[in-house]
Amino acid sequence: MILNQLPLARIFLGVFLVMSSWLHSQSFFFSEPERDESLRELTLSTIFQDSRGYLWLASAQGPIIFDGLSYELFTKNDSTSNNVSAIAEDHSGKIWIGYEDGSIYYKNFEGLTAWIPEEGLPAAPITGMEFTKNGQFWFSTYGEGIYVFENNRVYNFNTDDGLTGEDIYSIACDENGLVWAANDGGISVCSFADGQKKVNNLSREDGLPDEIVQVLKKDKSGKIWIGTYEKGFCFYDPAIKKIVVPEVSWEGGAINCFEVFPDHEVWIGTEDKGLWVYDLTNGNIEEVADNASFSNAKIFDLQKDMEGNIWISSNKIQLTKTNRQFEFVWDIPPNIQALIVDGDGTVWLGTQNGLFSLQPGLQSSYEEHLASLDINVVSLFEDEFGNIWIGTFGEGLYCYHPGRGTYRLFTQNDGLTNGSILSLDGRPGELWIASLGGVTTFEYDEDILESRRYNSKNFNQNSALGTNFIYKVFLDKQGRVWFGTDGKGLALYEKGQIKNFDYQDGAEGLSSEELVDRRFKTVYSITQGASGDIWFSTARDGLFKFDGENFVHFTTEDGLRHMEISCLEADRNGNILIVHPEGIDLLNETTGTITYYNDQVGLANFEPNLNSIATDTSGLTWVAGQESIIKYAPVLEELRAAPLTVLEEVSVFLEPIRKNQDSVLNHKQNYLTFRYDGLWFTDPASIRYQYMLEGYDLEMITSRDKVATYSNLSPGQYTFRVRSTQNKVFTNEPFKEFSFKINEPVWKRAWFLILCSIVIVVLFYWYLKIRDRRLQKVNLLKKEKIESQFETLKSQISPHFLFNNFNTLITIIGENPKLAEQYVENLSDYYRSILTHRDKDFISLEEEVELVKNYRFLLEKRFEDHFQLEINIKHYDILVVPMVLQLLVENIVKHNVISRSKKLNASIEYDGGDYIVVKNLIQKKLTPERSTGFGLQSIIKRYALLTNKKVLVGQENESLLFWCRPYQRNSKHLKHKTHESTHY
Amino acid sequence: MKFLVVFCLLFFESISPGYEFEKIYRGDNGYVHFVSEAPLEVIEASSRALQGILNTDKGSFAFSVPMKSFEGFNSPLQRVHFNENYLESNQFPNTTFQGKIIEKIDLSVDGAYNIRAKGKLTVHGITKERIIKSKVLVKNGKINIKSNFTVLLEDHDIDIPKIVFQKIAEEIKVDIEINLETP
């Protein structure tokens, strides 16, 4: 950002002094916002208010944005001139800055960015920029005519195209999208459509008073105000399509700028003759200020804001503002107690020292009436005959006709009950008089002053009024008469009856809450709002509204600034004016919003008296205070009654993010800063903010800070809401919101957790399956082992085996008892071996070979030398499944022919390699032995369960090879293995 | 020939009564180069037949280039298409630009200037008003002008068949350079 690099760029004011100075002009109250020293040096020219509500000020060092309190200067990031000559906003809300050197920049998220069209930029100062509804961008120059940018192309209008001059002072876009350009030859009205330029010139023949036109300004009604160099101003009225020159004598010289309050008045800034106001209602034109602040000043620009303030930049006062709604008369008689405005607009002032009048027009001074009487006037009323009724304190009631100069005094002898007349009101044929002796009414048919004929009627404390002290009498639009009493609340006269709303009297049937709402013992002032509701104020209990059925109580908690209200009046815009010692509050009847006006608009030490408020026939309200009379002239356009809240910036770890995007943050982006602003130029220091981060804060936080910071936010959905107020309470002010989401870290997100659990489940399932398979394998092995043991036992103790052995034994017992003995020993060894190895998973090859050797001995004796088994083992350091070799040998014997002619040779070999090889010649029996197939199968299965190595059965030449891998003794695997070969 | 017409106009103006002899600069053999950067093909061509005339007193100028003088296409056929189908060079032989310089700069004084020329650009018989930014170098009575700008085909009714469209950009980038001197 450019701004961080420049020391001047960011100017925030640590201390805001309420007012640097104020200037008493005759009619307006001007106040200057506080500025930093470095800014004071600058000349501020153009003032522009953007759609968000910020003010933009053009200076020679760059554009400055101003929120009422702080200023921020933007400078280009190149070395070209920063002298700003024009500021405008396009339809998307982007701010465009035109410079003296002809360059054009726009303000975006990053700062100022140069606008560079292919055609290049003017070499002359930019004097105006307009964005038309059809998307064209027009800019005028002082020296090169006007340019229009459309479809990526820039086109130029100059004298060759029909312009009356190339020095364009000002441009304005009319309602038809035509661009008006003020120059030294009049006005050139330009349009550009389908590549065709059209120029229409307006000159003296068309009604312009002067051909040098310096300024053009379109108002909201569509009129274009035209300021000339020498001959004053005029305007183009689109309704009659003509230039209208007002009949005023203009003495202000060259005109620089306008600001228009439609149907109300036009403010005119001049080149060297100060500031003027042209009143549209009566056609008067007057110079503003008789003191030095604007006299002979050069006014650079005028700009009204959305609150009714008008901002003025000039060569004498850099920047000042006044609230257009309040005009002041400073030259007034002291101690004013009553004020009315008669039908001619004359303001009548009743004071402790007599009666005064003030003629319309703010410049005139006052005049005293009935000076010889030396009366203390507390109330005034004008009847339909133009008589002024004057209520005095203790000296009775006067009726005075100012035109004829005649008057008459009414006292207790004339029907009054008391000489202190506190309030007067009436309607044709009726005069109502509130005094310290109750209420008196005069009914008459003719002018009382002339005819002296009337009927009087009295109501006193014995009536429903309940007291003799009546502060206020008020006739509403429906003809009802309302009374404000001392200590007995509000009373109403309707259809010949007086009804009292005193809460004490009507206490029955009211809840305690309703009682509180009726705490209006002493009523000072009564008025009727536009909607017909009756509003009245009390001595100390604030304000009440009565809609005919219910009372609504307003206190400081509802936004009232002061509980002691002096007087009330309804204005023409639907507001209730609440006048109290600290100034004036404006209560909008529809929205309930209360707007404060205080010393910032000139209402310091105001303190008016009870009867010092009146509204004239044109709807302007006059209020007399201690030092001034103000004329409250509600501006006829809708004003903002509450500050505008702007959520300026959202930062993550102090880095601003775009508010419309990036609203999804990751779990580490959890440090957020919100910068917001409440724009209220009327009294910027009064702003308070209320905010909360939904999803984090449980309730609203009220603060004066413009920044809210949240750190360590946990993942979730959040909405930041902020609003601002100028009256200390928050009612219906709209919120500005920013919603965002901080994501869970990846490992906490649902999809990740689901994925993880799926993986876990799958893994677990897989594990179970493997375990299951292994268990099955183990079971199978066990079963196989048992089966094998069983089979082995079965075969070894089968009668056949025993029979064979015993036969052999019988044969050799006789011939070789020694051998027989050996034979029995071997047989016995053999059985013992079986018994020993039966339960083992593995035995050493040595043991197995021992067993086989025993078995071989038995076989050799049985078959004599027809069967030969060679055992050729080179390494014994391995393990085998028990009896695997014996089984194979048995198999060989079982399935092959062994006879004298067919000797059977078999061998068992192991050379330390992978396999033990058992092989034999194949001599199949002609009638094959019935086989269970158990032997070989059992071996294969057991090896398959114990190891992944296969037992191989193969045929090689005449012999059947059978080999299998033995288990290594040191094998990590299970047990061991066998291999064998068997001959069949 | 448009260029001659313009030349004559300027010439007559210059000798019309009430004027002193005006400073006229002219030049031939100026360089024009254009490039069309379409997704499928980059087409480039250039010409050295740009003629120009500049009145430094009034800031008025006229430039012209015959379309048939362009060389350097990707193929001879492309050049034929360029002249016959798209630019219709027989019917509209020259591209011209004539108008006035917006800045009020005395171009008879040595120096380097950035100027903008506002004038009428006629391509394919269609005239559009344009502002063209240029760099001007004045030295020893010679003026060197360099500029670049874009021309939209649509602006000048140059119709390209849809199939060829992929090969020709809608926006043609042009850059020129010319030296002018007093005759």
Walk me through the topology:
The complex is a heterodimer of chains A (984) and B (183).
Chain A: E1 10-11, E2 22-24, E3 29-31, H1 37-40, E4 47-49, E5 55-59, E6 62-66, E7 71-73, E8 84-89, E9 95-99, E10 104-108, E11 111-114, E12 126-131, E13 137-141, E14 146-150, E15 153-157, E16 170-173, E17 179-183, E18 186-193, E19 196-202, E20 213-218, E21 224-228, E22 233-237, E23 242-244, E24 255-261, E25 265-270, E26 275-279, E27 285-287, E28 299-304, E29 309-314, E30 320-323, E31 326-329, E32 336-341, E33 347-351, E34 354-358, E35 366-369, E36 377-382, E37 388-392, E38 397-401, E39 406-410, E40 421-427, E41 430-435, E42 438-443, H2 448-451, E43 455-459, E44 470-475, E45 481-485, E46 490-494, E47 497-500, H3 512-517, E48 523-528, E49 534-538, E50 543-546, E51 551-554, E52 567-570, E53 575-580, E54 583-588, E55 594-597, E56 613-615, E57 621-624, E58 629-632, E59 644-652, E60 655-657, E61 664-665, E62 672-679, E63 688-694, E64 701-703, E65 707-710, E66 716-725, E67 736-742, H4 750-796, H5 799-815, H6 817-837, E68 843-844, H7 845-863, E69 867-873, E70 878-880, H8 884-895, E71 904-910, E72 916-921, ...
Parallel strand pairs in A: 61-67, 69-71
Antiparallel strand pairs in A: 1-7, 2-3, 3-30, 4-5, 5-6, 6-7, 8-9, 9-10, 10-11, 12-13, 13-14, 14-15, 16-17, 17-18, 18-19, 20-21, 21-22, 22-23, 24-25, 25-26, 26-27, 28-29, 29-30, 31-58, 32-33, 33-34, 34-35, 36-37, 37-38, 38-39, 40-41, 41-42, 42-43, 44-45, 45-46, 46-47, 48-49, 49-50, 50-51, 52-53, ...
Helix pairs in contact in A: 4-9, 5-6, 6-7, 7-8
Chain B: H1 2-15, E1 24-37, E2 42-55, E3 60-66, H2 76-86, E4 94-101, E5 111-123, E6 126-139, E7 142-152, H3 162-165, E8 171-181
Question: What descriptors fit this protein?
Answer:
heterodimer, A: mainly beta, Methylamine Dehydrogenase, Chain H, Immunoglobulin-like, 15% helix, elongated, B: 183 residues, alpha+beta, Lipocalin, 8-stranded antiparallel beta barrel, 3 helices
